[in-house]
Amino acid sequence: MENYLMIVHVDGNQITDWPTFHSVFAEKFGFPSFYGGNMDAWIDCLSSLDDPAAEMTSIHVQPGQTLSLVIDNAQAFKRRCPDQFEALVECAAFVNWRIAVAGGTPLLGLAFSV
């Protein structure tokens, strides 16, 4: 399997509340039109990054590969929206736990850019 790194940047300055959190991620990752706009739906969509047939995202990685999710302006985002920031970290960890329990490789790597 060819090993490459996919990097997706999300600008934390675009997130000011829950609706903008979900709209920014839905647009960046191409969530489906029926996306529920909640963290359970966010987890479900990002848990399918390696399954294009699920049609939950427009961005995909190969099975066994990890997507590097870079949150730009992370410090300001964390200060402005602590609940959304915490949910991002916890839910990304849950996506990886869910995959690991099923015997797979973590799908998301988080990085924060000041």
UniProtKB/TrEMBL annotation:
Residues annotated as domain Barstar (barnase inhibitor): 6-93
Family statement drawn from the similarity comment of this UniProt entry: Belongs to the barstar family.
Matching SUPFAM superfamilies: Barstar-related (SSF52038)
Protein name: Barstar family protein
Source species, domain of life: Bacteria
